[in-house]
Design goal:
alpha+beta, 5-stranded antiparallel sheet, 26% helix, 6-stranded mixed sheet, ECO RV Endonuclease, Chain A
Amino acid sequence: MDFMTNDNLDNFLLPILEKIVEEDQPQIWKNAKYLQQRMIQIDKRGSVGERFFAEVLLRLYPRRIEYNDGDQGDWDLKINKIRFEIKTSTLGKDGKKFQNEGIKKDGDYDGILFLGIAPNSLHIRFIKKTDIDFVNEFLSIDDLKIKLHHRAKDDTDKKATGAGYKLDFKLKDMIEVKSLNDIQVEFEKSFMKGK
């Protein structure tokens, strides 16, 4: 009856959980610098991008930003009266693309700030709402034309997960950033031309 001497259920469950977590972790994310982002539940991952851009842009443009923490509206951040929706995604298991959902056709925003978190690098893409052709379902920016995918009918609950449009960026279509200056250059190129 040796099994009775060590009958604590943690002895059974904890090794199973450890093994399954190891098996489930995509190879590209093993020992990654930004692994914690993958460990956060999906509904909370967006908060990372919102808080990241709020802190970074406040450092770049002191006293000019307004941060709308949470789901109070269609925009998350406002800088000089320009309202931004923020989308955060992680690089998929295949290492090829960032998937962004919930892009609203009739949302109260002027631009979208995309933060793509790869295992060991950060990537961005900034777009104006006017760059999106919701009728023909594509985004046109720089020399890119990227297909939008309509995820829900317009009359569905606007808070439903994934409601709106989905936009996937290939890794090569995002801009890797390493410094505040990298973000400032892209932000000003996208939103402050002629100002």
